C-alpha cells in the first residue's frame, strides 16, 4: 500500500461521506484516480463498508442494550481461535469479535432488545459452544466516545457557585 492509498483511507475513515471530487482535491490527484483507488481498495477488501455512527439516545425510543462479553475458549488444533471466532460472529446479535491478550481470549460485542435477551444469548447460544470455557458479561450503560466521536454535549453548568 502506498502513501496516497493510506492518505485516502485516513480521509474516508474520518468522513465516509466526502464526495469524490473533495477527496481528489484534498489529495491533489484527479477525480478519476480517486475513483480507481477507491474501487481497487474495495475490491481488495481493504475498504469493507461505510457506516454512520448514530447516537440512539437522541430523540428515539430505541431501547437496545449493548454488552461486551469476555470469552475464554479452548483453541482448536490447526486453526487456533479462528474457527471458534467464526462460529460466534455468525450469530446476528454479534456486532464485533476481537482476539484479545490477557485473561480472556475473545471479546464479543452484541446488541439485544433487553438485558434478558442478552442473557439468553449468553446462556443458550454462546455458552453452549464446545470450545467456550467461561464468559463474563459487561453491559454498556452510557457511551461517551465511540470511533473518535464524543457523544456527550458540552452542557453549561447551571449550578450556583458556592464559596466560603
TrEMBL record:
Asked if the record carries the keyword Acyltransferase, the reply is: no
Report domain HTH asnC-type positions.
1-61
As given in the record, the signal peptide range reads: none
- Could you tell me which Pfam families the record lists for this protein? AsnC_trans_reg
Q: Which domain of life is it from?
A: Bacteria
Matching Gene3D superfamilies: 3.30.70.920, Winged helix-like DNA-binding domain superfamily/Winged helix DNA-binding domain
What InterPro entries has UniProt attached to this entry? AsnC-type_HTH_dom, Dimeric_a/b-barrel, HTH-Siroheme_Decarb, Tscrpt_reg_AsnC-like, Tscrpt_reg_AsnC/Lrp_C, WH-like_DNA-bd_sf, WH_DNA-bd_sf
Which keywords has UniProt assigned to this entry?
A: DNA-binding, Transcription, Transcription regulation
Name of protein: Lrp/AsnC family transcriptional regulator
Which organism encodes this protein? Fictibacillus terranigra
